[in-house]
Amino acid sequence: MTSVTQQQIQQFHKDGFLVLERFFSIEECDSMRKQIQRIIEEMEVPPHCRVQFSTKEEEQLQAQGSSDYFLTSGDKIRFFFEKGVLDEKGNFLIPKEKSISKIGHALHANDPVFKQITHSSKVQELGRKLGLVRPVVVQSMYIFKQPGIGGEVTPHQDATFLHTEPLGRVLGFWIALEDATQENGCLWFIPGSHTNGITRRMVRAASGASTCVEFVGSEKDYDDNQFIPLPISKGGLILIHGEVVHKSELNSSESSRHAFTFHVMEAKDTTWSKENWLQPTPELPFPSLYT
Fold first, then answer.
1. What does the pLDDT read at residue 65?
2. Which CATH superfamily is domain 6-272 in?
3. Helix (H) / strand (E) containing 136
4. pTM of the model
């Protein structure tokens, strides 16, 4: 891994994202992949909790919102599935390891391998280079992007889901555990789109509502021509500003696109919204990135 230059950091502030190839070693990537296989082998999923992950707004509200399983996953390791992999009784139509969409949202706290990666010295050094004073880890996810069925992720800003006052305090670290290509669903970004604030928020619904979360405001219509693809090799890291607009397409290829991602908030002079779906708990206050 090469050290990050000031020029690259300026580029990040200009574009809202930064690609750092070969940030993690092949061995580090393989250790995460092996560990996730272990976690899947031990996975017990109560059928009523078989939440299918979706990013289309109505489906999101239905799938995630009708379930506390999603809302209370901030300090646990929980499982979310692709669409169409379960029958109406909640049984798997395809092998479970091929049906899973993501595992979240506290791998960084509850699993030794992912904890070590999240707090690795190179991540901490990068945080310091970015000028983060009191960064805390708010969530983490392992994303599978399964071959043939890995669903699209529609254009969005992470701050829609992870809101802070002021904005601009949330940063995503996205690690490719396999080569991410245009064929298997790499990320696409609109350079410079992190400077216009946000137009939509996902918030906790009032108690008694039919869903646990709701959206306030609406997503802008983005011009497809503004997006640029960011293919990246295994071990590469993409830094993602909380307000930059990004998406990924359906994976119609025969290879998966595994990634481990976590979000960090600069806690100094920042308020984490009480309306966010994700809240720190007494069992898991947001841990400091710096150890």
1. 47
2. q2cbj1_9rhob like domain (2.60.120.620)
3. strand 135-143
4. 0.94
